[in-house]
Amino acid sequence: MAKQKPLVVVTRRLPDAIETRMMELFDCRLNMDDHAFTREELIAAVAEADVLVPTVTDRLDKGVLAQAGPQLRLIANFGNGVDHIDLNTAQQRGITVTNTPDVLTEDTADMTMAMILSVPRRVSEGERLIRSGKWEGWSPTHMLGHRIWGKRLGIIGMGRIGQAVARRARGFGMAIHYHNRQRLHPEIEQELEATYWESLDQMLARTDVITVHCPHTPATYHLLSARRLKLLREHAYVVNTARGEVIDESALVRMLQQGELAGAALDVFEHEPSVNPKLLEMDNVVLLPHMGSATIEGRVDMGEKVLVNIKTFVDGHKPPDRVLPNLV
């Protein structure tokens, strides 16, 4: 008798090739209209699924996981970040959690570099001007920005993505500075020609562009607090493609309004999908809808990781991308 396939509930639309393979391998329930699950739908899903495949839009907190059925043994997250999942509760209930590391590194670094370039060079402002029909032609003093060659880039979080950004930024002539929980191996530091700062405060006061690449955890919530943002110089720019909660967004908005910062480029927001309406009014801010890793290749690679994690787990082995609370 053939072994019964596990019920896999997928909360959002995934690439066609991934969904097709899931349908072949598992008893799979897809979200064909790609709506974001409500809390009630999440509770219903964990109550009956053997495997749940959530994304960053699904908040699996203690209240939701407390209503999981005994058959739920794996949460195979479609994405690298797991701050939307209560890992401690999952572990207490015997639920394994996996993610999709490594495959988003280059895509996110590409987008970060694009954002680092876009604000000082006023790319979005120029594009909006063209579309408005108000451009009257070239002028020697029109739309002047700032060069990034020779500027200091401060990287907060020097993991895979932070290092990938550093390699790109070096190609644009930027000096690399970084703050990390642990200092890099000397060989990597030498390769990147990177300057390590044990004190985040000291690094902030000396850099021209700050880019955030650390995960959102209780320890990093508002890591860039109002106090720390005040340490930045008036000509500095803030870039964030990590998690919105790492920056005190209200403090950032106030400083931008008062001219205490030169600009910002944000792909993530503290209360997304809600965006502070004051940000929408600012010309010196580039705003993107959480698309730092949004490439076709990246999404397919993420899906392949999810498939491997589920299949490995179902076959009775430890999945390769297991996430533990003490390792986040």
UniProtKB/TrEMBL annotation:
Cellular component, GO annotation: cytosol
InterPro entries registered for this protein in UniProt: D-isomer_2-hydroxyacid_DH, D-isomer_2_OHA_DH_cat_dom, D-isomer_DH_CS1, D-isomer_DH_NAD-bd, NAD(P)-bd_dom_sf
One Pfam family per UniProt: 2-Hacid_dh_C
Record carries keyword rRNA-binding: no
Start and end residues of each D-isomer specific 2-hydroxyacid dehydrogenase catalytic domain: 17-323
Signal peptide: none
Lineage top rank: taxon: Bacteria
UniProt domain D-isomer specific 2-hydroxyacid dehydrogenase NAD-binding: residue ranges: 113-292
This protein's UniProt keywords: NAD, Oxidoreductase
Keyword Oxidoreductase: yes
GO MF term set: glyoxylate reductase (NADPH) activity; hydroxypyruvate reductase [NAD(P)H] activity; NAD binding
Record family assignment: Belongs to the D-isomer specific 2-hydroxyacid dehydrogenase family.
Listed name of the protein: Glyoxylate reductase
Source organism of this protein record: Insolitispirillum peregrinum
